[in-house]
Amino acid sequence: MRRAGQSGYIQVSLRSPARRAIQPRTSGRLTAQYLGETIFWSTRTLEVPMRLAIVAVLLALLPTDSKSSNLDVDLALILAVDVSGSISLSEAALQREGYAAAIESEPVLQAIASGATGRIAVSYVEWSDASHQKIVIPWSIIERQGDASGIAASLRAGRPASGLNTSMATALRFAGDYLAMAPWRAERNVIDISGDGVSNSGGDLEPVRQALLSRGIVINGLPICAQPQSDEACATDLVGYYRDRVIGGPGSFIVTAEGQVDFATAVRTKIALEVANLSPTAPLQYADLRQ
Predict the structure, then answer these.
(1) CATH no. for residue 107?
(2) Cα(first)–Cα(last) distance of the chain, in Å?
(3) Is there a smaller number of Cβ atoms within 10 Å at the N or the C end of the chain?
(4) Using the 8-state DSSP alphabet, how is residue 64 labeled?
(5) Helix (H, G, I), strand (E, B) or coil at 218
(6) Which neighbouring-strand residues pair with 209?
(7) Is 256 inside any structural domain?
């Protein structure tokens, strides 16, 4: 694993018909490179507080609509977390801590408050092979700090269990079925799936993925690039796999964590973007990259 502060990059893949020419942009210490439908957001020299500040600024600039009575929640979000054999129990515990800290973080709470209803529904599921899908946090509402703190405490209190293989098809099918069971109406339905490897059991991923997309479900990805993989190898292999074969739907994107040390920062950034619905259709989407 890398030491703290030695993060790799955050990759945000935009699923949009419009293609962009290769065009490096620089704003202060932040560099973005547009490659087709992908933005590579370099964080080699970007400190953690700056990354969170960028998200906070974007959230502050979003229009504040009056609370809507037509929807129960702005977002139904399933956090589907890999606990296959390649992830140790200590790493699985670090993942739980990363999600717990993200849910309680100010950028995420600000994003929730900025929505039409000011609340989201969230569930936390751990998955590995075809026989291992565990609902750690059942459907729960986050509307205020106390809600977030309660979920975070539950994540920290439990002990993760590790599986063997990596069945992403089964994990996504399970998440899709559980989304259909959500007790609240949501404007958006998102599955946020994370993992450190490609699917190697449980059947073909593509039919499951297409079935979810046909229901209007957005799939976002959080690939974990574990050492000793180089940045280039991870971008070619695991990140490319997530980009081409996992994520999908309007505004779908990837945030990459380089090792477990970088995981907490990546999760915090990713959930804030998901809750705020910062996508190609958002008027101020990624404004900081275009200054």
Answers:
(1) 3.40.50.410
(2) 33
(3) C
(4) -
(5) strand
(6) none
(7) yes
Residue partners of 146: CB distance under 8 A and separation at least 6: none
Cβ atoms 252, 54 nearer than 8 A: no
Our count of domains for the chain comes to 1
Name residue 39's beta-bridge partners: 12, 34
Residue 3 lies in a domain: no
pLDDT at 248 > cutoff 90: yes
Measured in residues, the chain has a length of 291
- pLDDT tens across 5-53, in order? 333 344 444 343 333 332 333 333 222 333 333 333 333 333 445 555 5
Handedness of CA 61, 62, 63, 65 (dihedral sign): negative
Closest CA to 118 of 150, 100, 102, 141: 141
Is the residue at 76 inside a domain?
Answer: yes
* pLDDT tens column, 194-238: 998 899 888 899 999 999 999 999 999 999 887 544 556 665 688
In a domain, 177, yes or no: yes
41 beta partners? 10, 32
> Which residue segment(s) compose the domain that 191 sits in?
9-58+70-290
Q: Which alpha helices (H) appear in the chain, and where do they start and end?
A: 48-61, 89-104, 106-113, 145-157, 168-180, 205-214, 231-236, 238-241, 263-276
Which token pair is 288? 């900081």
Token output for 174? 């399970």
pLDDT at residue 237, as a whole number: 85
For residue 81, how many C-alpha atoms fall within 13 Å in the half-sphere facing its CB?
30
Tokens of 277: 């619905």
